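User: What would this chain look like folded?
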Amino acid sequence: MPPMRAPRLAPALLCLLAAGAFSVGCGDSGSEESTSASFEPAESRPAPAKSEFPSPDGRTLREVLKGADGPAESVVAPVGVVFYPGQNRYPFGVFDRDEGQITDAEVALYYAKVPQPTPGAKSKSGNRGQIAKAQAQALDQPAEGPFPASIESLAPGPGFPVQSGKGDREIASVVYSTPLEFPGEGEWLIAAIIKEDGELRGRVLQSVVVGEFQRIPKPGQKAPVIHTPTKQDYADAIGKEPIVLLFATPEFCQSRVCGPVVDVADQAKQEYGDKATFIHMEIYNGNDPENGVRPQVRAFHLPSEPYLFTIDRKGIVRAAVEGAFGLKLMSKAVEKAIAG
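Assistant: Here's the prediction, encoded as structure tokens.
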């Protein structure tokens, strides 16, 4: 999960699911022992066919998961929290129980609508209890899917070394993603079916709130004007030349993807040269999380990072990408700004 945003799934639902057929953790399952940061290149892969995963056929999300061969051992970790009605890119990572990244999993996602909590209803645990109850009820709502995920390598191109990997954990070398089309605003519960040892196994993920973050600049909108403490000040370039603005903090990133995306941006900068101005904006004041986020992050109303914006020479946002991305997606975003 991105470091600036807490998980959406309520603890009560986590424990409920862990006690049932769909296994998730109820506590801190991470090891306290840290390892040296490392990066092992991995290959991109297209999404598997929908036919390789069960069709809901009018079943509920609970029934889809119960139809699997059992609970998944793999952990699916979303790296995005911003979603809108319509089609969205849903990025995530897949890890084993020891927090090692799995780079070749076959995964499909499903979702179901979370019912609105009854207005004014009370429970022993207050509003949190009502939220958990509503999320649990989503398991009995009609399931949509499957949405198989493709795999995009975060490895740099030939001759471009990894430079920005920092921290005490293995650096992510791929990102999984799939397009999810939400019919409207509201909360939706996500689940995954994962192929493990020739079997289909299920896991409930956290819910997402579609339409929650309305103030983040969207493609087609004017980009905010900010000053950046960089060699090229963003304020001097906005409205004059294409800009590639990346918010990321490799040193303090908890999702393991900030270092790789900074490397991807650096490689794109070399390839596009002076066709666009590339700006990397750090997240925290004084590069210290205890000091809070910088005013530039607040100006863009970001709840997570990394976050990429490409802006054309008229100051219009042409692409906005949350979470991890490889060179292919980066290049598409840059091309949109240059052509705008």
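Residues 119 and 130 are 10 Å apart (CA to CA). If you want, I can go into more detail on any region.
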